[in-house]
Fold this protein.
Amino acid sequence: MSNLSQAYVLGLMAEVAHKLPLVEQELAQAQARVAAVDAELQLAASEHRAAAQSARDCEENTQRNQRELGESNQVIAAIHQEMATIKRKIDEIQSDMEREGKGQLFRRLRRERAKQLNLLDERQEKLGAAQVRVSEIRESLRELDTLGNEAGDLLLQRRTALESHQQALPAPRLYTQVFELSLSAAHCEFFLEREAEQWCGSVGRAMEWMITLHQALAAGRYQLDRNSHFVAGRSTASAEAVYGAIAVGRLDLATELFEGVTHPNLFFHEIFNVFRIWCAGLWLKGEVESLSRLLSRYEFAEGLRGGYVQGFMGLLENDPDKVSQGLKDICRHEIELWQDPSLNRGLGVVNLGAVGLARLALDAGLRVAIPGNTVPDELIAR
């Protein structure tokens, strides 16, 4: 199912041998620069977080006061209606008293009138309290408006200072490039030497770059809005790291990576890499119902996504044939993908997604058919 040959892989190794030292040098230089200003960067990040929290607090307090103001105005309107009804009733009773004159009915009307007057006094007192509260809320809103403007100005200043310091940070792409090139080197070397343990060590070391990157993203060292393609599992590198950890038998690390690169509020499963990361993560965490619901959304998917759907449905259903079909589809479509010379084609020498899925099947006691030489037996049966 692939056109891998020794000559082809040697050519890929030559490309990697040329590119990897250059990217590693660029990353090392950037890390050296940021080390000199790390304390200032951490302070700027802390001050930005504090300013952002202050701005959020002002906004939340404003919204809460606005809601209470609306509710209080509704209470005042309701009291006015009640008072108008009571006053009409008092007037009606007064008319009845004047018409009846003295007597037993007169006395009953007088008692009822006194009762209504007491109700009117109660409503008047309640109205006064509500009006006082409205005045207090409006004063709070005026103060919050001033505080909000000050908080917004301070947040802008802190963001500008943080962005100035962040310019010294290594570009996130450097981490993913070093990771992917290191993976490519490991894959090519394995193809030529067939040393599974050496490959596992190399893949494990490569994954450290992705762990470092996502820790920095989680710590707020980078502006997420400017680096959104590295967030929530969107990047190919993030997905390869998760499946790479599974492939080398580090399920604990795979779970850690899943939790580090994803976010429940950013579950954009329409994006392929996000989808396949969540498939792996939900399986590893034993959340089979959530995984089943996710897969059911793409039950009739074709292409590469369809391969992952088949593979994980096979795991859920304990069906080795379905897993085998999924592996076959994954390999077939990824081989087509890695023919693009603009991509890092060394990543296709070992299909980490398929190897990881095959390892999960083996752990589940399923015997599956291996679809080709990009899913080496030596890496699955270790």
Summary: Residues 294 and 338 are 27 Å apart (CA to CA).
